Amino acid sequence: MILSTASILCRFKPSNQLIFLLIIGYTEAVNSEFSNQEETMSTNGLNQQKVEAFTERMVDSLNQGSLALMTSIGHRTGLFDTMAELPPATSGQIAEATGLHERYVREWLGAMVVGRIVDYDLDTVTYSLPPEHAAALTRAAAPNNIAAFMQYIGLLGSVEDRIVESFRHGGGVPYSAYPRFQEVMAEDSGQSVLPALLDYILPLVPGLVDALQGGIEVLDLGCGRGRALIIMAQAFPNSHFTGYDFSEDGVAAARAEAQQHGLTNIHFEVRDAAALDQMHRYDLITTFDAVHDQAKPATVLSNIYRALRPDGVYLMQDIAGSSHVHNNLDHPMGLFLYTVSCMHCMTVSLAYNGEGLGAMWGQEKALEMLAEAGFTQVEVKQLPHDIQNNYYICTKH
């Protein structure tokens, strides 16, 4: 705003006018400088409306990123689950109900209120989680619990320094740098893959359910904590199931859970999928979001082809997307998936001198690599509830 000397000078006593004239002279000089800057900016080729709109978008991203972190904390601490069952309550009452420290709960609630997640009543100084929000933020809402996926933001942020070093010096960040990865992935698949496995995913392959009931040999590569395989072993006691994973922690957790269920038709091994050297042994091989972060994905796919018996089936679940970035502009989760790829999938592959294929390798590249591995008959299917994955049904002939 440019100040008017005449309009303001009359407000001062004569004894103070000289001082004011000095001040206003400086102000007008500053205003003149700002005016010159505005003229320069309007003629330097920049569209100021676009600059302002982009800046606003970046500020919004900063806020939304912060909200994602606080949402993850709400999930991990059980705050959302507890608040969904409480009537409007004070921060102290919520802290007592969750067994958490009130000061932290109160600050978290501040973020939730400003983020429009939690409602706040000024008169009673109470907080409440609307049921419509609880329907997307609580464990009871699975598979629609978005809060569980927010954990990836903090998980990826924990390795930011090492990712920056990899940008500068090459190489990558190994699996060991992600101590919670198996835990978060298990919860992820527990919401997306496991509930759909028996009724929707396996029936994508014609005749597969009947074959499993009759008894076949099944291998799951990159099995993680083995939950998909355990569900199948429970549902199909006549079949035999084997799970391989690179993670010792993942395999240990899988063995413990299988033992807890008393399963005798399943076993797990710590094994690199690229070292698989079996021939014509399995009727079904599965991978669930496991190929794109392999150090040697082409070798893994070739090993899978050799390990299948004639007419055996390879069921590959992997990220739905295109190999070409311009085709992913409207992908509903494209930004998230490229970020996960850069900060986990791609870098863990590069850490082991791998190809760094990345999560967004895309359907075009996937079909090309499957063909090179020997699969000449491949169908790509999707499920209505799953916007993130493709299901590749590959038959060995």
| Parts with pLDDT < 50 across at least 5 consecutive residues | 1-27
Helical run tally? 17
Largest sheet: 7 strands, mixed
Sum up the overall morphology in one term: globular
Which class best fits the helix and strand makeup? alpha/beta
Annotated CATH topology of the largest domain:
Rossmann fold
- Give the count of structural domains: 3
The percent range for helix content is 40-55%
CATH class descriptor name of the largest domain: Alpha Beta
The number of E-state strands comes to 9
Radius of gyration (Å): 29 Å
Query: What order do the SSEs take from the amino end to the carboxyl end, as H and E?
Result: HHHHHHEEHHHHHHEHEHEEHEHHEE
**Main sheet: which strands, in order across?**
5-4-3-6-7-9-8
Please, what is the CATH homologous superfamily of the largest domain?
Vaccinia Virus protein VP39
Assigned CATH architecture of the largest domain: 3-Layer(aba) Sandwich
Mean pLDDT: 90
* Strand content bin: 5-15%
Q: Compute the separation of the termini in Å.
A: 77 Å
